[in-house]
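Homework help board

Subject: predicted structure for assignment chain

Our instructor gave us this sequence and asked us to write out the predicted structure in token form, then describe one feature. I got the tokens but I'm not sure how to describe them. Can anyone check?
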Amino acid sequence: MYKIGIAGGIGCGKSNIVNAFAHLGVPVYKADDEAKRLNEESPAIRSFLSDLLGPETYLPNGHLNKPYMASRIFSDDNLLQRVNHIVHAEVQRDFLQWAEKQSESGAKYVVCEAAIMIENNFYRAMDMLIVADLDMDTRIARTMARDNSSREQVLARMNKQLPQEELLKYADVVLCTDDKHPILKRILEINTIHR
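My token output:
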């Protein structure tokens, strides 16, 4: 099963690329969405988080106590690193199982979107890495509009991510999502090669 990873910093237009592949009928795995699901469904994650952060991590209804967890891990880099390590490992395991099922269903290739594909070495599980690229000012403006955030909030989130120029070093393909460069032509070329 051929696996294509989609990476890029906040506001770079990863979703535009992923949506184009999805419209072509390509199975898409959104790692951030799946991580949220696994935080609640994975026995390995539930056990780890409960042991690490205490029984308050999960509410009586079984859902993750997000405010409690955020208050614990975002003020402690060591805790955040440990949580990210276990969650990312479980997401990668889940993705590989999912990709195998897609192969069994007849898919020729799959696409995986992940916000931190490089930092956790997830890109190593991919056969091709596409990095969405966009100038900083447009990224900030798009993110402010999308999330109703201030410029300072967006910059704070960007500063926690790998710099865009570093991400580009890992790219097999760079797609500029600035509305001046036609990304669909390149996506159709990739689709034709791998379908």
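Reply (TA_rk): Your tokens look well-formed. For the description, you could write something like this. The two ends are 11 Å apart (CA to CA). That's the kind of observation they're looking for.
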